[in-house]
Amino acid sequence: MKKLKNNLATNVNEKITLREYAAFSSSTAMAKVGSAMNGFFGGLVASTFLGLSEGAFATYSTIIFILGFWDIANDVIVSSFLDKNRKNYGRWGRFKPWLMAMIIPCNIVVILQTLPLRDFFPNIGDTFKVVYLVSLYFLNDAFSTFYNAALTALNARRTTNNMERGYLAAIESILSSSIGSCGTYIAAFLPFLLPNLSEAERYFYGYSVVTILAIPLTLWNIVVTKERITDPPKAVTPRLRDVYKNIIKNKPLMLYMLSEILGHGMSVGYGLMTYAFIACFRTEQFAITFFAGTGIEFTYTYNDGNYAALLSFASLASLVTTGISLFLAPIVRKWVDDKILYIGMKLGTGICYTAMFLSIYPYEAHTPQQIFISVVLWYAIHGLTTGFYNTIPGLIQMSVYDYGEYKYGERNEATVSSLKSTLSRILGNCTTYVTNLFLIYVGYKQFAETPELIPLEAKASLIYLFAILPAIFSFLAIIPMLFYKLSGKKHKEITKALEERRQENLDYRIENYK
User: Fold this and answer.
1) What pTM value is reported for the model?
2) Which of 68, 184, 225, 234 has the most CB atoms at less than 10 Å from its CB?
3) CA-to-CA distance for 314 and 288, rounded, in angstroms?
4) Which strand (E) or helix (H) includes residue 195?
């Protein structure tokens, strides 16, 4: 059998091929969708579909909150191992073998995390369910940390061209939005296609298909993607203390990470969207007329409690504006600096969600139809910033990697990725823990299986929190970036100075692996 060999780029300025665009974008998009679905379905499984009592749910939430701080040690161990292990595996480089080793176990674990135990094994008690979820949390953390750190490092080395980075990010985001939206639409029709399956089972099977598809796409990306940025020949393994010292001294990196960590709080509000829709619309009936007074006027009557259909409407409205902004993002970057776009998108997001909150307050003064229309309207307008949000932060992260390489002679993507992930997860665990307690406090958890009994105050609190949290964290994320100075002309000068150094490293690697 002929031995499979991965290709090497021969020039740091070698253009990315269409096959590389397709392989990288599709695999990364699927991984993003899988990660988002895991957070979404995982939350529903634990809070709604698993059948945990209030006490067991509070116990589980507390354990996960405490164990979240294990991420600090875990990420340090994994990232230091990857960055200290300077061995290049021939034409496969440093990071691709780790992706190949982790992709299957990582996806198996996340599928098991969404398994609806109550439906498949109705006699299992709360204690087993809590132990089961906590054990999978440990495994997921171990596998996903290796996988995400290696993928981030590989992604950062695929091209040195800033415009190509922008196109890659835009294509990847378009695919992510499209695949994610398709999943939402499918969820809306599944009750009609598979009426004998429970809601938890439909989510489980749908998520399993997406997760399994990520495996061949990731392997395709590994085989096709070339590295334009490689390590220096005979690189000296740095001490872990020196690695973190250089990271801390990388001021642009610290400002960017602080902004992203603050912005991470937006995900708490996004995560509450499903709970808000379940609480506010599961038992309501109303009609919405589209294109009134035109030849294509039609009326949608909502009276069956299929809140997934309402989520699909919201997703469809946002998908159109998101597509527009994703198309514009790489074009606008030709004239507007990434820093300005980053601040602008955070400001725009904060304004949209503030307007959403004001338009539905007070809750009792509006009909369910009015609340739904207000939420969808501002959610759709927010889509005009979503495309930039999915593109610009990743490009700024590439720039701060460049700065570290220019300033200290090393990129250390795995350590930076894991450090950022650790801080984000700590914040995420804190906010998720508070959110879970909030679901219990307002009465959602008590009435998760009987939504017709959810108190009016709980409905109002859920919809308010969904609107106001993204606004607050968006505004906070702007503050650090006001001091960010690595942009425009300065970044171009650094990139130009790095080209010669990178080409020497690439030439050495090609010569030694002919």
Assistant:
1) 0.68
2) 225
3) 13
4) none
Residue 482: which of 351, 329, 340 has the closest Cα?
340
Find all residues with CB under 8 Å of 272, minimum gap 6, and list them: 435, 462, 465, 466, 469
Please tell me what DSSP assigns to residue 294: S
8 Å CB contact between 242 and 410: no
The CA distance from 93 to 81, in Å, is 15
Identity (one letter) of the amino acid at 259? S
Structural tokens at position 453? 């009994």
Residue 370: count of CB within 10 angstroms of its CB: 13
Residue type, 66: I
Residue corresponding to tokens 């914040």: 427
Query: What does the pLDDT look like over 465-475, one tens digit per residue?
Result: 888 888 998 99
Which secondary structure element, helix H or strand E, spans residue 76, and what is its range? helix 70-84
For residue 492, the SS3 value is helix
CA-angle at 131, arms to 126 and 134, nearest 5° = 125
> Which one-letter amino acid corresponds to residue 13?
N
CB atoms within 10 A of CB 495: 17
Please write the tens of the pLDDT for every residue from 445-465: 777 677 777 888 888 888 888
- Residue 392's identity, in one-letter code, is I
Backbone angles phi, psi at 110, to 5 degrees: -70, -30
Element (H, E) at 254: helix 251-263
